[in-house]
Amino acid sequence: TSGGFGSNAAEGLSGIAQAAGTTAKYSALYGVMGLLQGAIAQVGTEMVNFADSNTDLQIALESSTDAVGKASDVDHEYLRTLEGISITAGSNVGDVQDIVAAGIRSIGLEAGHSSAELKVLGAEFAEQSQRMAILAKTDIKDAAGNIRAISSAYDVPLSNTSRINDALVTGKNVGGGDEKETAQAVATVGEAAKNAGFSLEGISAIASR
Questions:
Q1: What digits encode the pLDDT tens for the residues 166-198?
Q2: How many other C-beta atoms can be found within 10 angstroms of the C-beta atom of residue 39?
Q3: Average pLDDT over the chain, rounded to whole?
Q4: Model-level pTM?
Q5: 62 or 96: whose pLDDT is higher?
Q6: More confident residue, 110 or 61
Q7: What phi and psi values does residue 70 have, to the nearest 5 degrees?
Q8: Which residues contact 128 (CB under 8 A, 6 or more apart)?
Q9: What mean pLDDT do residues 2-13 have?
Q10: For the chain, how big is the Rg over CA atoms in Å?
């Protein structure tokens, strides 16, 4: 009898162990499936955002083009350029497209730019935003916002945003401060500083101390 009981107990424990093992396997499987579903959903969201940003970029080009000539298309080569900027900045290409579209709309207010020129200048604005993002260790969207704020305060055309980064780098070298804090400070006090007679380069050096 005791042998039968021991045998039954052993079989029972074996069954429980097997059931537990099966449950663990299924739990792991469901976990993997959940991760895959989450990844697929993320990819789907990014694809939708990419399509929306691409459409908006094309609209920006068409609405900002001079009356003469046809608006340039957002072709694969141009998208590869923007993708390279996004990879360097650690961002997604949709964010860079949005930055370029905003830049093109602002630059388009300056007279005399063709659609082809706007594409180049828009990409350069994104590159300068990427440069500031790396220098200031910040997100490329925040960097683009700081550049636009400083550009507006100091009447620096977005077609010449390299001057803004150069001023911040020079200011950092003089003052030795943090690039991110310097960029934010200059963006915040830019208009008041300009009205008080400070140059962009001068206020960048002061803000960096």
A1: 988 888 777 777 778 888 888 888 888 888 988
A2: 10
A3: 79
A4: 0.72
A5: 96
A6: 61
A7: -95, 145
A8: 147, 161, 162, 164, 165
A9: 55
A10: 28
| Paired tokens of 66 | 């001079």
pLDDT at 5 over 90: no
Measured distance CA(54)–CA(64) in Å, rounded = 15
Tokens of 189: 């006090």
Residue type for position 142: D
Dig out the tokens for 57 from the structure. Answer: 């970029």
Of 15, 33, 120, 113, the C-alpha closest to 65 is 113
Convert the chain into a string of H (helix), E (strand) and C (coil).
CHHHHHHHHHHHHHHHHHHHHHHHHHHHHHHHHHHHHHHHHHHHHHHHHHHHHHHHHHHHHHHHCCCCCCCCCCCHHHHHHHHHHHHHHCCCHHHHHHHHHHHHHHHCCCCCCCHHHHHHHHHHHHHHHHHHHHHHCCCHHHHHHHHHHHHHHHCCCHHHCHHHHHHHHHHHHHHCCCHHHHHHHHHHHHHHHHHCCCCHHHHHHHHCC
| Token pair of 190 as six digits | 């830019």
Which residues, including other chains, have CB under 8 Å from residue 165's CB and lie 6 or more apart? 128, 131, 132, 135, 147
Length of the chain as a residue count: 209
